[in-house]
Amino acid sequence: MTLTVLKRLSVSKLITLSTVLLLSVYSASATAQRISASDDGKEAIAKFVLNFGRFIDWPDSAFSSGDAAFKVCIIGENHLGAELEQALSGKSAGKRDFAIQELAGGQLEEAKACQLLYISASEESRVGEISGAVSGLPILTVGETDNFPENGGMIGLADADGRVAVRMARSVIEAANLNVRSQLMRAIQ
Predict the structure, then answer these.
(1) Range 120-128 average pLDDT
(2) Could you say which of 62, 70, 130, 180 would form a disulfide bridge with 138 (CB–CB 3.0 to 4.6 Å)?
(3) 8 Å CB contact between 154 and 3
(4) Which of 91, 87, 90, 142 minimizes the C-alpha distance to 114?
(5) Which residues lie closer than 8 Å to 123 by C-beta, 6 or more apart?
């Protein structure tokens, strides 16, 4: 698997394209290793999720109908909570409204109905298993565990001294028939 390691970026320095991508600054004062350990980190992840939904294209076959919502699912413990709700509330990915669904760790069949699957840090030991269960389907997997892309995930978010480092497994994303728009790539480089 080939990984594209993107330049470490400050969330506050992400550029805009047709709309302003407002991402809050992740607090450098957080002492925990996980980005989601602080409110600022949760907000940053939530805004990344929002923009992944907006700047990655899914095939029509990824949705149950033409007017189906864009489902963001969290498998495992939901550390993002209110921040994710707030970031996605009233917003859309193209013509599709966002909908959030929480899944227990064992709900792998239900995960196949999602467009974006956030794999919680509580499922760190199962990243490969979960990613394998949705492999080849148009489902973007995102997480913040160590070596997320190397363990089968698509987009890994990591704390890099108060900055968010974004790592993508482009070949895995493309194999799932997802298209990362150049606008997103430019914005996060």
Answers:
(1) 91
(2) 62
(3) no
(4) 142
(5) 75, 76, 105, 130, 145
